[in-house]
Amino acid sequence: MRVMYDEMVAQFVRVLHKHGITGDDADLSAKLFADASLEGVYTHGLNRFPKFIASIQNGSVKVHARAVCSESYGMLERWDGLQGPGNLNAWICMKRAIGLAKQHTVGIVALKNTNHWMRPGNYGHLACEHDCIGLLWTNTVPNMPAWGGTDAKLGNNPLVAAIPHDEGPVLLDVAMSMFSYGKLEKYKREGVLCPVDAGFDAQGNLSRDPAKVLETHQVLPIGYWKGAGLSLALDLIAATLSGGNSTCQIGKLPVETNLSQCFIAINLSSFPDRQALKRNIAATLEDLQASVCREEGTAVHYPGQGMQQVRKENLELGIPVDEGIWKSVLEA
Question: Which of 182, 236, 240, 314 has a 20 to 30 Å separation from 191 between CA atoms?
């Protein structure tokens, strides 16, 4: 089943109005959800929307709160999300980091007390639209064991690196687990195995079965001990810079809220050799794409490249949706 983009946005806006998010904020929030699905990140678009509404209903998201600056240190600012909607808070903070970068070449906003930011690639796109490199990450509730451990002590702490490119940004958007929980839930609904090992089953064996991994909450860190170490480092940096909660502290709360996030923008327009930098990026990507995939025999793609074609197709034909989830939105 496919749904046209404008219809999806309109339904999101309608439901948001019912739950107290109105005006430009509702329009932006709806667009961020729909854009995720439009570009093929279905787990954090439509599929995530009912969970967002549930977080409003359980009180973890304060619909009228928005992030505010609490401390300023020149190119770095601390902001307090006041438990507002995570996607709106993230948009505000990424825009502010870009504004600081236009003043200082580098801008950093560290955010505390916020909620799940939905699809972080949206904010990487925003940085690239202003000719900035974007580096941003968040911590989460404990949902991943450290390598060698059996208890979830780390967050899967997604990281985005976005680099402007004339033919479409390089957009790396990855969790520190082999698969995000949203992706595991998608595979489970579809009744398919993960393409590679995703985590551990109840017997402690590596498994590609999403249902078994979701049951144990023992997801596999990317790169084993390297992913676990990177998760810990991202968590500590975000919590330290923002003065907010670490994953350990978030895990003691009744629900996942009061997260810590970091937004860094680097203004490439500040550099006098900007055109040379563009040529270097283009040459590097061209060299990468000259490689041939071992299995498919097609050209290698850089991160984010495929989104442009997915976006074009979904605008023309409509966005593929899970019928059950779409029905729940229509009935909300």
Answer: 314
